[in-house]
Prior knowledge:
By secondary structure, the protein is an alpha+beta fold. The protein has helices at 5-13, 18-30, 96-119, 133-141, 143-151, 154-165, 170-185; strands at residues 34-38, 41-46, 49-56, 61-65, 89-93.
Amino acid sequence: MEKHANVDKWLAANPRWRAEAKALRPILLDCGLSEAVKWGKPCYGHVDNNIAIVQSFKGFLALLFVKGILLEAPEGVLESQGKNTHSSRRVCFRSTDDVKRLEPTLRDLVRQAVAVEDAGTPLPEREALVLVAELQARLDADPTFKAAFEALTPGRQRGYHLHISDAKQSKTRAARVDKLAPRILAGKGLRDR
Length: 193
């Protein structure tokens, strides 16, 4: 596939891990993926599906496979981003040698990811969300609030739950519910404008 000018601009503007990203790019393009900049990062796709996103962190460069949970890789190659990540998995690079060493595995992961998209393989279901007590209490006590919360997308509901449950003290969690109630009632997600 062809290089995209916006990815060239991203590489020029992001010196951290530039060499690793430049080493990764031809592998992904040679696998037949298209490239663009989405969400401020190089994104590689197949047909109309996002396959992988390049992410630059302080300690490493990551290639995040959007449906990585469905891919098979040697032990330790694919990592979860964190405890709240459901489907994506990433490969981390700390040097161009890492990219070169993992090239055969990367090509196989891309092949698998394209096959997953072509087959329309669904992601496994998330575990049912058990809301934090302070949010659940407000939902139980206020039917209007409950209706507004239930009208939100599952991702927005989860976002509110994670933000509220992140507080260590019950009074802080309750205060967060009170503070966020107007946004929920307006049908907005935690990060919507």
